[in-house]
Every structure is written in structure tokens, then in C-alpha cells.
Amino acid sequence: MIEAVIFDWAGTTVDYGCFAPVKAFMEAFAHHGVPVTMEETRKPMGMLKRDHIRTMLHMERIAAEWKRVHGHEATEEAVDAVYAQFEPKLFSILDQYAAPKPFAVETAAKLREMGVKIGSTTGYTDAMMNIVAPKAAQQGYAPDFWISPDGVGGRGRPYPYMIFANMQALGLTAVGNVVKVGDTISDIKEGVNAGVWTAGVIEGSSELGLSQQEYEAMSPQERETACQKVEERFRRAGAHFVVRDLSQLPDLVHACGFKNMMR
Question: What's the CATH number where 120 sits?
């Protein structure tokens, strides 16, 4: 049987569309004279935030633009400089982006009724989570455990260590009894690397990159096309399952448990 579901935070269970870090990253790069696109910003989403910045600085267009503007290639000093702008910007808005996504509260309650524990991993730091977790709890969403890359020596996604820390803290017996759910490619790789069942969630994800208002304004055909593209990216990254929204998770957990018995 499935013992636990380990959720991501922003874009998965809170912050529909994962906009808090996107906004802070874009403003931080712009401050240094190198505007970045939303697509570029979202590509490494889910990683430890300093790793995220480092990855962006090595993207071909951004690297070339940084060199043009600053007269030299981006170094670790550049990572530090961008992060120095990013962190305060993010802290200033985090409390506004901790609202649970649709179905998050209800799904967590349903899973607990099924005897499933709720764990979580994140690309945020401990200090960031100390803002997000209490705000989410005030609005009804509180997992049994959370850990950031700070708790595993800075080795966040796609390393599997945060998942293993969840397993230890929650007293889980086997990776085959765990489902990891996330909204980014980094989430999928984290789950795959840990050897657990891994699922991507589409609606409200960073991969989809739309606000709830933008998504609901689309025609049914536009929604289907956009969701299909995200599903394909999740599948290519190794996801075992893809769900449209969190309401589908209890049935998925039941299916994973059945597949375990059939192995």
C-alpha cells in the first residue's frame, strides 16, 4: 500500500502558477541589466534558488547578454549578486503567495482518511518556508513534514535526499510505497532519482505557467492543447503518472498501491 504522498509546495499545493519566485527572479536579473523572459525563468524551477540562478546564468542567451552588459562572463560572484537582489524581493512577497491551490486542502484530508501521510519537499530555503508554511496552515494546508535543501546540506533537486529525509521522518518502509507529486521537471527528476512513484500535476503548475484567471479564460481546446504539452514534458522527464489537478490524487494513490501488489 502507499504510505505517503510527498508534495512540492509552490505551483503544486500553494501559489497557483508558481508566480512568487518567477517575479523575484525576473526583477533580480533586470536589476543587473539583463532582463529575462518568463520561459527562461521557469526552466530550472524547483531547484534550490541559488542553483536556479546559476543555471539561468549558464543559459546561452543569458550568458551572452551578461557578458555584453558587464564585460565578462558570469562567475560565482554574479550568482551571489543576483541572489542578493532575489532573496529580499522574494521575502517581501512570499506571504502573499501561500494560498492553497484548488483541491489541496480537500485532497490532503482525503489522503489522511486513507491512512496516507503527507510529506513535502521544496526549492525554498528554511527561512522562506518559515513564512510559507505557517501562512498555508492558517488557510488549511499543513503537511506532516517539510524539509528544504538546507536540511540536506544544500543538495536539493534533482538530488533525492529530501525525499529520503521525508521517508526517515515519517517512518516509511520502502520507496515503492511513496508517491512524489510536483509541478516542475526538477520535481519529476527528484522523484525518479529517489525511485518512488512520481507524478506531475498540470493545472496551476510552473510548467503550464498560467494564472488561474488566464487558464479559466482559455477555450476547452486551448486548455487541452496546453495541458497535453505539459504532460508530454513530464512524461519525457520520467513521470509515471500525470494528473490534471489535485482532486485526482486519491484515485492515483489507490492505483499505485494496486500496482505494488501486482509486482
Answer: 3.40.50.1000
Cα→Cα distances 210→17, 89, 214, Å: 5, 21, 6
Say if residues 233 and 189 touch (Cβ distance below 8 Å): no
Please say if 49 is a catalytic residue: yes
* Residue 220 shares a structural domain with residue 162: yes
pTM for the model stands at 0.90
pLDDT score for 257: 73
Residues 11, 33, single domain; the answer is no
**256 and 242 assigned to the same domain:** yes
Same domain, 166 and 249: yes
**Out of 15, 23, 43, 49, which one is annotated catalytic?**
49
Q: C-alpha distances in angstroms, 36 versus 13, 56, 63, 138?
A: 26, 9, 11, 34
Report which DSSP code applies to 39: H
Query: Which residues of the chain, if any, have pLDDT below 70?
Result: 258-263
Please, is 92 exposed, middle or buried when counting C-beta atoms within 10 Å of its C-beta (0-12, 13-18, 19+)? exposed
Domain around 173? 4-18+98-262
**8 assigned to active site:** yes
Q: What is residue 22's predicted lDDT score, i.e. its pLDDT?
A: 94
Q: Which of 125, 181, 140, 185 shows the shortest CA–CA distance to 158?
A: 185
Three-state DSSP class for residue 63: helix
